[in-house]
Amino acid sequence: MASSVTFLTAVNSVLKRTGVIQGSTGELTALSSPSHQREVDIVIQLWNEAIADLFGMGLFSGEVASATIVGVLNTREYALPSDFQRMAGRTYETRVLRGATKQLTLYEYEGGYDQMYADQPMATQFGGAPARWTINPVTNQIRFDTENSSSNQATGTYNFLYEKSVRYTSTSTATGDTFPFGDVVVDALVPVVAESHDAIMKGSFDGLTFRKSLARAASLIGQTQPMTRWGVRNAG
Fold first, then answer.
1. What is the three-class DSSP state of 70?
2. What would the pLDDT profile of 54-104 be if each residue is shown by its tens digit?
3. C-alpha separations of 125 from 9, 145, 146 in Å
4. Do 218 and 57 contact (CB within 8 A), yes or no?
5. What is the spatial distance between Cα 10 and Cα 212, in angstroms, rounded to a whole number?
6. Which helix (DSSP H) or strand (DSSP E) does residue 159 occupy?
7. Distance from C-alpha of 95 to C-alpha of 173, rounded to nearest angstrom
8. pLDDT digits (tens, 9 = 90+) for 34-57
9. How many CB atoms lie within 10 A of CB 124?
10. Of 122, 129, 130, 180, which has the highest C-beta tally within 10 A?
């Protein structure tokens, strides 16, 4: 569920909580303020850090997107989405490309790109349908372990999950941007950003409020009830 709270509103909420502005008359109408620009710039940075901390705690809605690769004849590298941060999946078994038209699962090349580079001194000799993938750090593209060397193999279509890059700036377009998670998560993150702001600007920091608020945001963004019991529950 996406938020209805704009990024500008969230910045104003933090500035109010920290006492930088007061009331509705003091609210900023843009992410620029001659009298408070340093505080605004710091709050923008801290919102990005808080979101990164939150997303680092798990695989959450709003963080993950899906993409599709359509095979092209004699091609082994394919562009990543513009908002690509990294492949989703906590384990080797879940960081996969899944065949959309065939029952295939492509796992990450063991050892990564440098190992593939070492294993294939004549890369053009490796043809046929791909079985593994990696990310080429030189081109920033997904690279298969083989080239699609026939028109039949080139028709393969693959889907994958990835973690998006979520970042806000002081540009005018960010004023109306919303968050990729619900309003209650935004509300829970306001104290997190506010405490980080006070640590920088005032030298004061309430660690308990920071940790509780971040944990609350993580529990709310998860969209499922936390497990309190594991294993088989006996009747009676």
1. strand
2. 988 876 766 788 999 998 888 899 999 998 988 988 899 999 999 888 888
3. 56, 11, 8
4. yes
5. 19
6. strand 157-164
7. 33
8. 889 999 999 999 999 999 899 888
9. 10
10. 130
